[in-house]
Each structure stands twice: as C-alpha cells, then as structure tokens.
Amino acid sequence: QVQLVESGGGLVQAGDSLRLSCEASGGTFSSYYMGWFRQPPGKEREFVGSITRSGDTTYYTDSVKGRFTISRDNAKNTVYLQMNSLKPEDTGVYYCAANRRTYYTVRATDYNSWGQGTQVTVSS
User: How far is CA 31 from CA 21, 52, 54, 94, 97, in A?
Assistant: First the structure.
C-alpha cells in the first residue's frame, strides 16, 4: 500500500495562491488514481478533485472549478494541487488519497490510502 505525505499548507489571505504537494512512497505511483479532499472546521471531509493515472484527465467539485488545478509527476511520485483565488471557505485540512479503481468518484470510501493532511487557512 502506498504511503502519502502532504506538504505546502499555510496561512494566506483571500485571493492568494498556494500549491500543495503529495509525495508517495512504497508503491507504484503511476498505478494509482489520486484524489484531493478537504475537511473544513466542524464539517465532514469533502471531495476536491482527482486525476487519472497518466494525468490526462481531471475531475473537480463545482466550488473549485476554474480556481484549482490538479497535476502529477509520475517520475517524482508526486501529485499537486494548485489553488488560486483562494477564499475563506477553502479553509480546512487538505488530504491526498490514492486508489487503484477509478478517478471518477467523490466518495472518500473509494480511496484506501491517505496522507496525514496539511492545514490551509485563508483569512478574509
């Protein structure tokens, strides 16, 4: 099972950009579909977006479309989440996750490997 470690979180102001990274180890990274989720304060974990194994297709929740971009570098075993035009409602703990079955799912239960999360706080 692949191990995942996120980095890049922090405190930013509304309108700023931030790029999160998620580095994988212990598995064949290119065989995994990758997803990003977030958990706002006091709320349940929610889907942000996902990417196919080759990186040719992405899928986003409506609230981040046009602002967030997921990419991956299989040579570096890393998936990225570029977040632009950040809003206070983007605040939360961001997690990357991996599964071998599909990228086209918003269900956290479809992912079987998770990172520890990285905090993103957007001030108004």
Answer: 18, 9, 9, 22, 13
* Residue 5 CB partners (closer than 8 Å, separation 6+): 22, 23, 25, 115, 116
pLDDT digits (tens, 9 = 90+) for 30-42: 999 999 999 999 9
Distance CA 10, CA 44 (A): 20
Q: Can you tell me the distance from the alpha carbon of 10 to that of 100, in angstroms, rounded to the nearest whole number?
A: 30
pLDDT in tens, 88-103: 999 999 999 999 998 8
What is the spatial distance between Cα 52 and Cα 43, in angstroms, rounded to a whole number?
27
DSSP designation for 108: G
